[in-house]
Amino acid sequence: MKLHRILLTVALVAKLVLFASVSAAQELESQAEVSDLALLAQVINWGGILSAILIILVAWLLLRFVDRLVDNLSQSIAERRLAFQRANAFFHFFVYLTTVVIIVLFSFDFRPEVIALFGGAAVVAVGFATRDLLASLVAGVLIILDKPFQLGDRVTFGGEYGDVISIGLRSVKLRTLDDCTVTIPNNLFLSEVTSSGNSGNLEMQTVVDFYIGLDQDVHQARELIRVAAATSRYIYLPLPIKVVASQQPLDGCIAMKIRLKAYVLDTKYEKDFQTDVVLRTHRSFEETKILPPAALT
Q1: CB neighbour class for 186 (10 Å; exposed up to 12, middle 13-18, buried from 19)
Q2: Which value, to the nearest 10 degrees, does the dihedral of the CA atoms of residues 50, 52, 57, 63 take?
Q3: Residue 167: helix, strand or coil by DSSP?
């Protein structure tokens, strides 16, 4: 009985000691958190934040002014449209990067205490949280320098096809032919294939396919297609027009495939050029009795 009481007393004392230890640890942790928050509050330069807001406003107004200037110049000097847009993209990138650096320098007071506060595990956590952002930032710099594509290029990437309308710090924006805006993180362009249709030029090769029966006059068909392309208002004549023919299975029959390769004078007229050539070639085929392929029986 006495042994039982002694064991109960020891257990009670142990619980009291454990409770006191946990309470002390929690109090020390709370004091540490308060100390860290106080230090963090001292790190922020509250006066600099007002300056940072003013810098953001000035940068926004400057970019709006330059955008309007570039739009006016692009309309006035159409043949230099892509050059103006590329210069504007580089200017945007420079302003974004400079503004971010200035804001950080103005808003925070970097002292040895800051390094201690954000050192160790905190740095690792911040690194994991910002690695995608930093990867996109580095990729954006590489895109500007390496130029796998440029602003205004018509590109194919990840199943999307459209014009590059923006190259930013974090992402590239494409405007598809359906007038949708697609945002793609910069770092994706480092590991996937991108196809550029015009590589910085206004003119771009456009491909149009036609199919006729094997028993039709392929020489006349090729000439009609060539004439339709050469007389189109959207054709870029300084570059050659090619019309090639080949046999190909098509929906239960063997067809003669005739492929037109010609250059449109501006990427924005790609679909207009294709439509113009197809409609006028179709009319010529009807007039000359050139028929489509017939199904095999």
Answers
A1: buried
A2: 170
A3: strand
Residue 247 · residue 257 · CB < 8 Å: yes
Q: Which domain holds residue 234?
A: 204-288
Assess contact for 208 and 278: CB atoms under 8 A.
Answer: yes
pLDDT computed for residue 287 by the predictor: 93
59-91: per-residue pLDDT in tens? Answer: 888 888 888 888 887 777 766 776 777 777 778
Q: How many CB atoms lie within 10 A of CB 52?
A: 19
Q: Report the C-alpha gap between 90 and 168 in whole angstroms.
A: 9
pLDDT digits (tens, 9 = 90+) for 242-269: 999 998 887 778 899 999 999 999 888 9
pTM of the predicted protein model: 0.62
List 162's β-bridge partners, or say none: 155, 176
- CATH, residue 252: 3.30.70.100
